[in-house]
Amino acid sequence: MLDTRLCMCYGSIALFNSMLHNIFLLYHIDVFVSIYKIDKLSFWVGETIFLVWNSCNDPLFGWISDKKYLTQSVGGHTVVLQRLRSLTWNGPFFAGVVPCLLGIVDLSPSAVCALLADLAVDSEVRTRLNFHCSLFGIFGALSVFMSYIVWDRHYLMTFRVFCVILAIVSAAGFLIATRILRDICHRDMTASKGHGVVSNGFHGEEEENTKTAIELNFSDDKMALKSFISQLAGHQNFVWFAAMNLIQVRLNVIQMSLCARISFIAPHLNNLYFTTLCNRHGTYVVIRGLFLVKLCLGVFMYLAGPDHLWLMCLFIASNRVFTEGTCRLLSLVISDLVDEDFVIHHRRQAVSALMFGTSAFVSKPGQTLAPLIGTWLLASQTGHDVFASGNSFGSIKMKFDPQQSAQHEVYRQGVFRLLVCVPVVCAVLQLAAWSNFTLHGGRLQWVKAARRGHKYTTV
Questions:
Q1: Which of 42, 237, 317, 426, by CA, is between 20 and 30 Å from 229?
Q2: Given this model, what pLDDT does residue 444 score?
Q3: Secretion signal: which residues (predicted)?
Q4: 431 touches 296 (CB < 8 A)
Q5: For 412-457, how does the pLDDT look when each residue is reduced to its tens digit (9 = 90+)?
Q6: Do the beta carbons of residue 106 and residue 364 sit within 8 Å?
């Protein structure tokens, strides 16, 4: 039976992560453009540097964490303990960096996400862990509402103090949660050694191999990395998943309203239901349904036109709900890809962090390109450059003269097209990529059975 404390601690990691992550998503463009009023070149250079780092840090940490598993075999509990040992120190460190750099720093994302694949093979157990991530993510999203109280673009000191307090709370909570998880894993390892069973949802290979390195045919780390990249390039389900995930971006080109702040909590609430549907119908079917709903809502909004304000607000909020809902389920898909990679490449040990990191390497550029593409599309569709004529006038919002009704209408129509057409195009492309993803149904059952070491005839 899955330990309740394990679920609570794993979910709390999502809480302490989202506390800081959501603040960045909400304010970073407004801070740089409207407050610091940086010029366009500086903004693009900064986003490019961030793109490189944001794309490379996940596979880098994943490689550092998992490269030994390409040449060694260890027990499942040992893998979890090593990840938690790394998170115990890296998580608080990254949390402390956030208020200093005002940069998006997920708390060791590869290691955190890899835990989902390492803690369990069973889909229902993974879904339950993901359920707790959404449950605790609701409380983490409350930091957005608290920030609304202290946010003042003319006086940032209160907001800065608020961010520092959030970072301290996040670092302390992260430290406590990972230590408790380590204690649970130690207890489970002791129990499995004493009774020959695995409990609490942990999966594991034979523990007698924990301290025994099994050398493979790789001469060095360079050959191991080259072989892994070659294998991954031929992993068709991973390639199609990466293509779909790359499109999973949000164009944050308009200043967030209270409606948008509510949308930070709504995805977590909906995901509590989505995870239930995943247990009943499978993750693949649920994600495909979310894409279809997003497409239908976009087409309906386009036909309705920009004159229905409340309908537009509902569309913006619902689009974020379904987009974020999909994002919250992707860790389950990558965990299944970890299992498939383990089976089809006959690995001695699953390389969870490396798989999650490589996936992030492909998808993270979309997050960084979103504001760049978004500001460019806003300018092309509305004629409004958010950087305006220099540092003195840069602003996300466009100010109109009361007599400039024609210009206001051009701006309104342009924003409407941007808000509606981008989700529609993304949904079409994602459905096209997702239709080629075959890791579901009989194929997924075969992978799960093979991962557990049982024979299964259907591929």
A1: 426
A2: 92
A3: none
A4: no
A5: 787 888 888 888 988 999 999 999 999 999 999 999 988 887 444 4
A6: no
CA dihedral 30→36→39→40, nearest 10 degrees, is -20
Angle at 78 between CA 72 and CA 84, to 5 degrees: 120
- Write the CB contacts of 287 (distance below 8 Å, at least 6 apart in sequence): 326, 329, 330, 333, 434
Question: What does DSSP assign to residue 32?
Answer: I
DSSP 267-286: HHHHHHHHHHHHHHH-HHHH
381, 418 Cβ separation under 8 angstroms = yes
Helix axes 4-30, 157-195, angle to 10 degrees: 150
Residues 6+ apart with CB under 8 A from 180: 5, 9
| Rg of the Cα atoms in the chain | 23
Map residue 300 onto helix, strand or coil. helix
Q: Is the torsion defined by CA of 197, 198, 203, 206 positive or negative?
A: negative
Q: Hey, what amino acid is at 316?
A: I
Tokens representing residue 385 in the block: 């450059």
In the chain, the amino acid numbered 277 is L
Q: What is the pLDDT of residues 212-223, one digit of tens each?
A: 333 444 456 677
Which residue do the tokens 């379904």 mark? 322
- Compute the distance between CA of residue 2 and CA of residue 125 in angstroms, rounded to an integer: 7
Q: How far apart are CA 242 and CA 302, in angstroms?
A: 28
- The candidate with the shortest Cα–Cα distance to 14, out of 358, 351, 290, 328, is 328
Predicted local confidence at residue 228, as pLDDT: 85
3 state DSSP class of 219 = coil
Six-digit token string for 247: 């499109």
How many angstroms separate the CA atoms of 311 and 156, rounded? 34
Q: Which residue has the tokens 């129509």?
A: 413
pLDDT at 107: 47
CA distance 216 to 185: 28
Domains annotated for the chain, with CATH where assigned, are: 4-195+216-451 (1.20.1250)
Taking 70 as the pLDDT cut, the residues of the chain under it are: 1-2, 71-76, 89-111, 189-221, 249-264, 367-368, 371, 383-405, 407-408, 454-459
Phi, psi of 124 (to 5 degrees): -65, -40
Q: Which amino acid is at 105?
A: V
